[in-house]
């Protein structure tokens, strides 16, 4: 029998957003016997999980601690992270016999596909009796005794409402600012947001100069506002990307410069002095090509007018040039913004939430979890770990 369009479907818990945090919270609540509904406006659930880690989902980082997160209150995430650790999530992954590999510094990736993680979460949801509805948009939320949701798919009510709508990053994957709007509706403060873990766009003149390098990557260390990160740098059509650049973007503000060390840990001056002694007539660009990707060495020598044999450089010129390769100063014009950013800095003010349960202090029954909250991880599996841990904290309470 079909229900009338005016029927209100009753649940104990409604979760808005079927991403990493929403599904994890649903599992914890469902396992406690709560009647749980997850709503998502996208046509498919868990899209970001599928896209993550280059299709292999860097699902946690074994060394995750509060120090790996940005937040106006750096202590807020400690409690949840302590109570649901990377090893707890790993136990679930192992229970589902998902093969994984450890990359640098505790970063755990699926060996095969991100799909394994999504399938695991959906299987656990099914086992816990969780109902999931995609393609469902929420038109209005009100609160009387219960939360009442008017949606494109009918009316729903629940005692607990969990907001797991994520940040603003990548609108084509379903991201919206809806979670912030819900917070504001209930008088909850939202801190300014910024795109983070995002490529830089360089000034037009640098884009033209570096045009031929697109697709080339090299190991660097990059510095911004006294923070330094080592890793890969990738030249793109518009500017710079790669792990080191994405990571440093979290510290960059418009107008700031970045300093790139193209040969980290290498004594370029000493090497050049030695080469000048051994091969005085050799072109500098050929000498540099033995230490840097050849295309990069040739291009920078052209840009910086260094196209001549090494014996034509004075000691001072050699030293200035070595300095330049170790401290390449660039003023990014902007970032690529939310269109390609992996995460969003800022969001629901943690002062408004309980760090134990993620419930809003001003509004009993209303919870915020995952990326919508002002807790943002560094690159390397930290963002998913926050999604799992904050979701678990709420899921045990709702
Ligand atoms: C390309 C890419 C790669 C990444 N790789 C990694 C990685 O390897 N490791 C890592 O730790 N982190 C990674 N991240 C970050 C990580 O994906 C996020 O931090 C994490 O998914 C956040 O989980 P969440 O559940 O809070 O939000 P999301 O996963 O973004 O889920 C939010 C859900 O809410 C839904 N929603 C939004 N608005 C509405 C609305 N108005 N109504 C109904 N539903 C709505 C969305 O459709 C979505 O399903 C990556 C991010 C991107 C973009």
Report helical residue fraction: 25-40%
How far apart are the first and last residues' alpha carbons, in Å? 31 Å
As for the CATH topology of the largest domain, it is FAD/NAD(P)-binding domain
Contiguous helical run count: 13
CATH architecture descriptor of the largest domain: 3-Layer(bba) Sandwich
Q: What percentage of amino acids are in beta strands?
A: 25-35%
What does the overall shape look like? elongated
DSSP E strands, number: 22
The H-level CATH homologous superfamily of the largest domain, spelled out, is FAD/NAD(P)-binding domain
Which molecules are bound besides the chains? flavin-adenine dinucleotide
Which class do the helix and strand fractions yield? alpha+beta
Mean pLDDT: 96
Reported for the largest beta sheet, the result is: 8 strands, mixed
What number of structural domains do the residues give? 2
Given as residue ranges, the uncertain stretches (5+ residues, pLDDT < 50) are none
CATH top level of the largest domain?
Alpha Beta
Structure description:
The chain has 398 residues and is α+β, with helices and mostly antiparallel strands. The chain folds into two domains: 8-195 and 345-395, 3-Layer(bba) Sandwich (FAD/NAD(P)-binding domain), CATH 3.50.50; 200-335, Elongation Factor Tu (Ef-tu), domain 3. 31% of the residues lie in helices and 26% in strands. The protein has 13 helices and 22 strands. Strands 1, 2, 7, 8, 9, 10, 20 and 21 form an eight-stranded mixed beta sheet that branches. Strands 17-16-13-14-15-12-18 form a seven-stranded antiparallel beta sheet. Helix 1 (20-31) packs parallel to helix 13 (382-395) and helix 9 packs across helix 12. The radius of gyration is 25 Å and the shape is elongated. The model has no long low-confidence stretch (mean pLDDT 96).
């Amino acid at each position: 029998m079909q229900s009338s369009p005016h029927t209100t479907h009753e649940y104990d818990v409604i979760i808005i957003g079927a991403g990493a945090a929403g599904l994890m919270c649903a599992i914890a609540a469902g396992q406690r016997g709560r009647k749980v509904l997850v709503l998502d406006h996208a046509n498919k659930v868990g899209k970001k999980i599928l896209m993550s880690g280059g299709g292999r989902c860097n699902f946690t980082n074994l060394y995750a601690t509060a120090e790996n997160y940005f937040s106006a209150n750096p202590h807020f995430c400690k409690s949840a992270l302590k109570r649901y650790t990377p090893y707890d999530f790993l136990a679930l992954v192992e229970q589902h016999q998902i093969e994984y590999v450890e990359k640098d510094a505790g970063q755990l990736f699926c060996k095969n596909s991100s799909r394994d993680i999504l399938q695991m979460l959906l299987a656990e949801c099914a086992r816990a009796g969780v109902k999931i509805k995609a393609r469902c948009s929420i038109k209005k939320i009100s609160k009387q005794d219960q939360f009442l949701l008017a949606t494109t798919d009918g009316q729903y009510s629940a005692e607990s409402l969990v907001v797991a709508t994520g940040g603003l990053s990548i609108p084509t994957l379903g991201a919206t600012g809806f979670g912030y709007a819900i917070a504001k509706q209930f008088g909850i403060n939202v801190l300014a947001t910024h795109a983070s873990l995002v490529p830089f766009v360089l000034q037009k003149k640098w884009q033209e100069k570096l045009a031929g390098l697109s697709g080339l990557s090299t190991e660097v260390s990059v510095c911004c506002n006294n923070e330094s990160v080592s890793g890969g740098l990738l030249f793109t059509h518009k500017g710079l990307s790669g792990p080191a650049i994405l990571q440093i973007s979290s510290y960059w503000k418009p107008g700031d410069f970045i300093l790139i060390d193209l040969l980290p840990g290498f004594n370029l001056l000493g090497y050049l002095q030695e080469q000048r002694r051994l091969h005085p007539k050799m072109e500098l660009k050929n000498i540099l090509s033995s230490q840097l990707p050849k295309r990069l060495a040739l291009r920078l020598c052209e840009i910086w007018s260094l196209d001549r044999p090494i014996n034509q450089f004075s000691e001072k010129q050699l030293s200035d040039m070595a300095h330049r390769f170790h401290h390449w100063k660039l003023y990014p014009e902007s970032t690529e913004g939310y269109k390609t950013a992996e995460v969003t800095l800022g969001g629901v003010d943690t002062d408004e939430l309980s760090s134990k349960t993620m419930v809003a202090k001003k509004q009993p029954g209303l919870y915020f979890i995952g990326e919508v909250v002002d807790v943002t991880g560094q690159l390397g599996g930290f963002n998913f770990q926050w999604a799992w841990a904050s979701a678990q904290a709420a899921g045990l309470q709702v």
